[in-house]
Design goal:
- The structure is a single chain.
- The chain is globular and about 50 Å long.
- The chain has a two-stranded parallel ribbon.
- The longest helix has about 30 residues.
- The N and C termini lie far apart (about 35 Å).
- By secondary structure, the protein is mainly α.
- It has one domain.
- Helix content is about 65%, strand content about 0%.
- The structure holds zinc ion (ZN) (2 copies).
- The site of one zinc ion has 6 residues, from helix 4.
- One zinc ion (ZN) binds next to helix 9.
- InterPro entries: Fatty_acid_hydroxylase (IPR006694), Sterol_Desaturase_Related (IPR050307).
- Keywords: Membrane, Transmembrane, Transmembrane helix.
- It comes from Sphingomonas vulcanisoli.
- Its main location: membrane.
Length: about 220
């Protein structure tokens, strides 16, 4: 499973880095930073793969977890509802653990690895200290024991997680201006929002939604490129 996570990372980040080189040539000039981002990300892939591998094995072999394969096992509205619930739960976990990581001692020991990317590139998607990777690695494997989800819906959650992890660090905005600066952008997090976290540090902690940042007064608005 770690190998799958590593290949998924290399393909997605590599694909978006290639796209960036075409669209914004010269944006990723710091090769030493990119080498460091890839190193930490591959170490994180190893950590992400462990709980995911154990849970996938338990699901196949022993029927652990609440992952189901018959789409009619629950009402059809549950398919989108479960996706949203997983994203909201992951977002809440990320917000509070991320905010804790900005406490000075945890920051210098752990989270500084992620912020060493100034500004981050598409390769920084999983550039975390191994102990921070561990806090991220357990979220989805824990949720599948708590909240029923169809296997395809889980695939969509993982795809969104991968896509947003990469694009939020890409150094330019992929999504249309109308979305980012419109009504949806008031609640959704894209690169323009997360870039500001990398610039100003103690604000914009969220992952997918601006909900917790808004509730807790840590949303400082969108950054700019
Ligand atoms: Zn980041
Ligand atoms: Zn941070």
């Amino acid at each position: 499973m770690s190998a799958i996570v590593a290949v998924r990372y290399l393909l997605t980040s590599g694909g978006f880095a290639f796209w960036t080189a075409k669209r914004h040539p010269g944006l990723y000039a710091n090769r030493r930073q990119i080498a460091r981002e890839i190193g930490w990300s591959l170490a994180s892939a190893l950590i992400y793969g462990l709980p995911a591998g154990i849970v996938a094995w338990g699901w196949r072999q022993h029927g652990w977890t609440r992952i189901y394969t018959d789409p009619h096992a629950y009402p059809l509205w549950w398919l989108p509802a479960s996706i949203l619930l997983y994203l909201l739960a992951h977002d809440a976990w990320f917000y509070w653990t991320h905010r804790a990581m900005h406490e000075p001692r945890l920051f210098s020991r752990i989270h500084a690895v992620h912020h060493a990317s100034r500004p981050p590139t598409a390769w920084a998607a999983m550039s975390f200290h191994w102990s921070e990777a561990l806090t991220g690695a357990i979220v989805i494997p824990a949720l599948v024991f708590l909240i029923p989800i169809h296997v395809a819906a889980l695939g969509i959650v993982l795809a969104i997680m991968t896509l947003m992890g990469v694009t939020n660090h890409m150094g330019w905005e992929l999504f249309p201006r109308a979305l980012v600066h419109g009504r949806a952008g008031e609640w959704l997090i894209t690169a323009t929002h997360h870039q500001r976290h990398h610039r100003d540090y103690r604000c914009n902690y969220g992952l997918y939604f601006r909900l917790w940042d808004r509730l807790c007064g840590t949303d400082k608005g969108l950054g700019g490129f």
